[in-house]
């Protein structure tokens, strides 16, 4: 056994590599050969050079055309549900009932809406609870849901090719999306705001002039930022988790998206806060194949029920109370 003291109790002189390391620690300022001693990295100060951007990040080019906002078409108009007690099973609903489960596309990285519990491994959140209520009405059992993890960029295609029966993924109903899929009635209304560090001087969108803001590409949030703050630099990343990382590392000055999504980031990192007025309203809808009118009507029947019997408010209070008191379920808007 190696000992640090001799038989008389006097300290032995360290030998070999241990001696070199101690010399380096004692006189690093006077030596140039001790290259293993490094100064810790400085805390980011906002010049965007301390850390590389997250994988897949890019600086978005300035907008060259005006992208339509949510209110520029009737994207929230959906199909009226059948009257209570009159729900004839059409072809898609019959297919789901014969299968014995409804297949729902979700995103496991959307904290408070649909994320995986690290202990149980279960997918949970506001969107997940809405899916369980749809299963309750379609199949008589809220547990008869098969959740399939879908990348947000693939959700439209997943519905179009029937990989899933529907997606419930905190999706803002826009004109472009409504031309590709059928939407349910609005099931949640978010407002686009800003997430910034606690010590930040940013309080409103105007404070972002000449600064960087993080967004996911080709989203209503990104286009709203470009419309309202023309000289802002938009950093796009694959998903919103990457935006939080970029903000934590000082690579961007703010994240801008729906307040409900920002709340999930703020809960994960209490050093962040939500600020500013609502920049744009974001109505969420459930995406369904355009050929499945019977399923759209059935889902809208569920949304009416949970708004009427208090289930919607209970789900809100379970996950989103950090946004304030429940506003109640959105009032549906129908096209027929």
Automatic annotation (TrEMBL):
Superkingdom field: Bacteria
Domain spans labelled Solute-binding protein family 3/N-terminal: 101-323
Keywords noted in UniProt: Signal, Transport
Keyword Ribonucleoprotein: no
One Pfam family it belongs to: SBP_bac_3
Family named by the database record: Belongs to the bacterial solute-binding protein 3 family.
Matches recorded under Gene3D superfamilies: Periplasmic binding protein-like II
Entry-linked SMART domains: PBPb
Organism field: Prescottella soli
Protein name per its UniProtKB record: Glutamate ABC transporter substrate-binding protein
């Amino acid at each position: 056994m190696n000992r640090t003291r001799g038989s008389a109790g006097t300290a032995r002189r360290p030998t070999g590599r241990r001696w070199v390391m101690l010399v380096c620690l004692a006189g690093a300022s006077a030596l140039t050969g001790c290259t293993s001693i490094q100064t810790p990295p400085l805390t980011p100060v906002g010049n965007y050079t301390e850390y590389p951007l997250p994988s897949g990040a890019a600086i978005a080019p300035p907008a060259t055309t005006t992208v339509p906002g949510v209110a520029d078409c009737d994207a929230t108009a959906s199909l009226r549900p059948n009257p209570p007690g009159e729900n004839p099973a059409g072809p898609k609903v019959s297919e789901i009932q014969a299968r014995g489960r409804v297949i729902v596309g979700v995103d496991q990285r959307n904290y408070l809406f649909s994320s995986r519990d690290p202990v149980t491994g279960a997918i949970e959140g506001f969107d997940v609870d809405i899916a369980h209520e749809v299963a309750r009405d379609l199949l008589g059992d809220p547990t008869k849901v098969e959740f399939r993890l879908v990348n947000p960029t693939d959700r439209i295609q997943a519905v179009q090719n029937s990989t899933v029966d529907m997606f419930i993924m905190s999706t803002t109903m826009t004109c472009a999306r409504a031309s590709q899929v059928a939407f349910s009635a609005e099931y949640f209304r978010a407002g686009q705001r800003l997430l910034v560090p606690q010590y930040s001087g940013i309080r409103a969108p105007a404070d972002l002039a000449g600064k960087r803001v993080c967004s996911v590409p080709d989203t209503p949030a990104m286009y709203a930022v470009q419309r309202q703050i023309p000289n802002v630099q938009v950093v796009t990343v694959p998903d919103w988790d990457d935006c939080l990382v970029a903000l934590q590392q000082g690579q961007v000055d703010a994240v801008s998206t729906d307040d409900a999504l920002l709340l999930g980031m703020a809960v994960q990192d209490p050093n962040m806060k939500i600020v500013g007025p609502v920049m744009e309203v974001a109505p969420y809808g459930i995406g369904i194949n355009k050929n499945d009118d019977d399923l759209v009507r059935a889902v809208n029947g569920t949304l009416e029920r949970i708004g009427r019997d208090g289930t919607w408010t209970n789900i809100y209070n379970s996950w989103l109370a950090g946004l304030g008191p429940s506003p109640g379920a959105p009032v549906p808007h129908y096209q027929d």
